[in-house]
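Collaborator request, handled under Task 6.
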Amino acid sequence: QVQLVESGGGLVQPGGSLRLSCAASGFSFNNYAMSWYRQAPGKERELVATISSPGGSTNYADSVKGRFTVSGDNDNGKITLYLQMNSLKSEDTAVYYCKAVGRRWPRSYAYWGQGTPVTVSS
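Structure tokens returned to the collaborator:
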């Protein structure tokens, strides 16, 4: 059974930094993509950043380019996803979700975490 557990959210002042983590358990794929999404109050969930394996390629939403960095660790199959968020703005306030998509041809399998809230406010 796959579980994704996010942590690291909280209250931060504008211009500050936070690091989110997403610990995956039971996720045993060699070909996968892991992403951070966010959903602000009254808005649709949006993609923030993705990292793929194998290869480690990344991509970002335009709104976070240059400020956020996505990375991941794979320690003997134990996968942890990170999102380093710098120069935070009030518009970054949202619940941040981790998503993992495992690919095993011909299917793909998607899993979501429960979310961690981030509030950027003075």
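The cover message to the collaborator said: "Residues 70 and 83 are 5 Å apart (CA to CA). The chain is about 0% helix and 60% strand. Please let us know whether this matches your experimental observations."
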